Amino acid sequence: MKIFAYGIREDEQPSLKKWQAAHPDVEVAFTEYTLTADSARLAEGSNGVVTLQTSPYTREALEVLHQLGIKYISIRNVGFDNFDFKDLNDLDFTLTNVPVYSPNAIAEHAVILMGRLLRRVPEFDQKMDNGDFTWSPTIGKEYREQTVGVVGTGHIGRVAIQILQGFGAKVIAYDVYHNPDIEKQGLYVDSLEELYKQSDIITLHVPLFDSNKYMINDDAIAQMKDGVYIINCARGELIDTDALIKGLDSGKIGGAGLDVLDDENSVFGKVWSSVDNIPNEKIRNLAKRLNVIITPHSAFYTETAIHNMITTSFDSNKALIEGKKPQNIVDTRK
Ligand code: NAD
Ligand code: COI
């Protein structure tokens, strides 16, 4: 049995070596390149493919894998919004993801972004850089005075709720599916409108679908409290960046913590040396603001997460090749 892996980084190699050592019956080959129509040929002779990227998986790349007789694709991450399910179904692929490699990694990151906004850390950092050791005017806010609206109470949203409750915040939540634990605590509101109306901070933890693309738009922002903070550690396309910039300009939005951005692949993963060199005008606009904190889709990036992403994705791919049905098969027929 042979598995070919795409987009393997140096930080993943120790976990990959451990997995290989534990599975001497599996031949593993890999490349640092992501899966494209060109790199797809590298998988020739393999039974399955393990991959991770934030750019789209193109039909052309999948067609090459199909021609090579490969049927099994295992992504090392949670979100599969960069696949077109029609392509996967037409070409008869089975897809697995890693649904719970570490919800804590992302939830902690979201709450840290909130905390940095509440305590005005970027402004304090700038003052420190200028040798300004005074207090005013960078007065902060406390979590216990905040109502935090959590959109999406899946694996990540629920850990975020626990952490926020530890800080003493009042949490409300919205989800199309009601989790029994969150329901028991009486945290759900009936609509997004209600969540927008009540929240001082809104944090997004839902997958991206065609139906919720740009859910945070002019209309949604108009329903929010003045000075609201918006946190997005889910997918960039959930927020209409033009509407966000407008809201920040008017002061309707008090700040934003963004681990993901619309069109992030034009900027993330590269070194621009200065914010002035960022080639995407909207992202450059956001990056220049002291009340906007951007991180490069790194919420997931912890040692624990990386280890679990490698182990589960390779386990799943091996299981598929052996004709088993691991629990983390993505339902692409929905
Ligand atoms: P999950 O599937 O466990 O939970 C998602 C929740 O969203 C579910 O409870 C679902 O019912 C709910 N939901 C779906 N559509 C909704 C809608 N329109 N309105 C309200 N609720 C809706 O997923 P998760 O593990 O919590 O991850 C959430 C998302 O976080 C992923 O889909 C992915 O896009 C993103 N993510 C980001 C990073 C990162 O590094 N920034 C890492 C992992 C995951
Ligand atoms: C995910 O797991 O869905 C992420 O967003 C992490 C990223 C490495 C793709």
Automatic annotation (TrEMBL):
It holds the Pfam family 2-Hacid_dh_C. Residues 113-299 form the D-isomer specific 2-hydroxyacid dehydrogenase NAD-binding domain. The keyword Thylakoid does not apply. Gene3D superfamilies: NAD(P)-binding Rossmann-like Domain. The keyword Oxidoreductase applies. Residues 8-330 form the D-isomer specific 2-hydroxyacid dehydrogenase catalytic domain. It comes from Companilactobacillus nantensis DSM 16982. Belongs to the D-isomer specific 2-hydroxyacid dehydrogenase family. Keywords: NAD, Oxidoreductase. GO terms for molecular function: D-lactate dehydrogenase (NAD+) activity; NAD binding. CDD domains: LDH. SUPFAM superfamilies: Formate/glycerate dehydrogenase catalytic domain-like (SSF52283), NAD(P)-binding Rossmann-fold domains (SSF51735). This is D-lactate dehydrogenase.
